[in-house]
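Hey, resending since the last one bounced:
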Amino acid sequence: AFAWYMLKKGTEGGHRTPPAKDFEHRHDFKEATQAVMKLCAHIDKLGGVDGLVGFSQGGELAYLVADNFWRLSSQSQKKLRFIGTFGSEDPFNQRGIPPTTIPHDVRFFIGYGEKDDDAAHDAQTAKKALEDGGALKVVTHAVAGLDHHMPKEGDGAYASLLGAFADSPCQVLRLPPLARGPETGSAVWQLPLLTFEALGSGYGIITII
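The structure tokens again:
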């Protein structure tokens, strides 16, 4: 399996409101913090990025970067302007600690499949947490018939994302996932050479897979 940080079973933290199914796994706080620190350091090394887009746990990591905005250099803080997530759970409710330092000028897009029960539920709680934490613009988008997968191009989700952040042109950066080490079973941070691509629309995203 691929993961940005370890997950563990437990009940400590927040809980989903019934009849929603409660969290089966929760992120390891120490490992999640280390992942945030490493990603922030890498963003700084790049000279800052315009946006972050993540699927599943990658989106949850993007949320945590927003909640740790102070870890970024002043240059990176000025450049980062949007965060998009797809199929992500609410890490704030999961840990039981709401965000308090969400920057006002970073806009959020939360995409999810209507058949992805956990992400559909958490899209609403994450939206509220982000807004309560300081975010001024949070857009949600449900994809009909989709479960826990990335939407297809014709589903309208990407058009909605680009529409929400139409004035945020940037580069496209595809960041490979973390591999779980076969010897120890622990998460191993891997950052091989990164490739840049161009989008015909003229917009860019940073993708955390």
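Residues 168-209 have pLDDT under 50 and may be disordered.

Sorry for the duplicate.
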